[in-house]
């Protein structure tokens, strides 16, 4: 068969040659050892936690090596694409500080555009390029057209789609379907001409040459040395609408864009035989692959399962709404990526998490366990290390979007807000009061009269008269100009005059000898002023609230007792 003539018949509009396309994508001018990676999501929904996990690996590998990290949108499945998903993706990446060098971006007018010289970065805009290489394979007898009725083609496409999504093989399909597929190899040039004349739809299939009984050795940078079966499936390269399948687009795009390392989930491992054959047929050098372990979580029975789209923590936008700061999410991801991150951070407290030397060899092979309690611990540590200025900016930005009333309080008097955030910061043991920006309002809301409420009641074991007496005495002696020692000394004197000792050692030794201790007197005052049994340092709180507000709140409490 004259395969060149066949290719010309199937692709009459393809004028570019392979060499001309290759010239459009020259080698990148990068230092030795530099890696080129890509994040290539489909615009079919929200950014999954597992996707962000992979994006961070992409970003770290590229930028730590002096290479290039680019964003490619794999939008070849128009039926599954969700309107606005690309814009949502870009906003999510921006919020979490995932910086890429090339790819799709939003310009100053809110329009989606490309930046970089290796685009287009949306696969839907690269159809001509795929057709050039499909024509090449047909002309070499490595691919062929498969003509069918529209119903048959739809059935084939749906089967292929399931194979892509679920990563199944043709081996699981019915034998008769396989036999029907193989029957498609048998055609004459005259039959092709007749089909084309009639406008019959067709797909382009690869002509598999593999023996499933034979194995191919393959090295994955995470999984190690593998053996995979040779591909014996005539899988689809181009669908009847001329749009490529993931397999074909992946090979062409990663070759032209000079991708050196492909990071993807281990659920794509069954596709390796297809990709090995494709790269070999096309004469492309295969990139290195990193098939990352699944993100797991504990189920209600204590077992491990894959973090699904329906699980809490799966959707990256949820972290934003819950108020997890960018830095917190990054550091948590790094603890999952490399087990030595926390040890490194403890030894390099003055360095940014972006300075961490990420190492592929320290990635988990078996799976990473998602743990929100661990995330909260990491987040508390991260937020506690921030300056008052830093935490204020983050809190104000978050509240302005998700709690406008509180956000207005913060922004109307930024200096007042910053003085609140300064409490307990900067020391060797900074306070770790909250894990998210959403938890700030419940913790410091009492500083603002509109949010001030008495949340905690006085313990019933303390007589109301004692509480009243302590509050009255404090109000009488309170002076906003007192230093901390003088202020506390007055509280001690109040307590001792009422039979509440300031000698904690004596109190622990013989509690029945006293009505209580000085901590109880402080608690009486704390609840009146903050509405809570637990709050930041009371001296600092009162200095910020000011004399009038402190006395006003004590008076209101006295009226209520």
What does this protein structure show overall?
The protein is of the alpha/beta class and 561 residues long. Among the domains are: 305-358 and 370-385; 388-445, no CATH class; 464-560, Arc Repressor Mutant, subunit A (Orthogonal Bundle), CATH 1.10.10. It is 46% helix and 12% strand. The protein contains 24 helices and 16 strands. The strands form six sheets. It has a four-stranded mixed β-sheet, sandwiched between helices. A hairpin with a 3-residue loop joins strand 7 and strand 8 (224-229). Helix 1 (3-10) packs antiparallel against helix 5 and helix 19 (464-477) packs antiparallel against helix 24 (547-560). The longest helix is centred in the N-terminal third of the chain and has 17 residues, at 150-166. The chain is elongated, with a radius of gyration of 33 Å. The termini are far apart. The relative contact order is 0.08.
Key words describing this protein structure:
single chain; 561 residues; alpha/beta; Arc Repressor Mutant, subunit A; 4-stranded mixed β-sheet; 3-stranded antiparallel β-sheet; 46% helix; elongated
* Known CATH architecture of the domain at 464-560: Orthogonal Bundle
Helical residue percent?
A: 40-55%
Mean pLDDT: 91
Parts with pLDDT < 50 across at least 5 consecutive residues:
none
Largest sheet: 4 strands, mixed
Question: What is the radius of gyration computed over CA atoms, rounded to a whole number of angstroms?
Answer: 33 Å
Structural class: alpha/beta
General form: elongated
Strand content: 5-15%
Strand arrangement across the biggest beta sheet: 1-2-3-4
Number of helices: 24
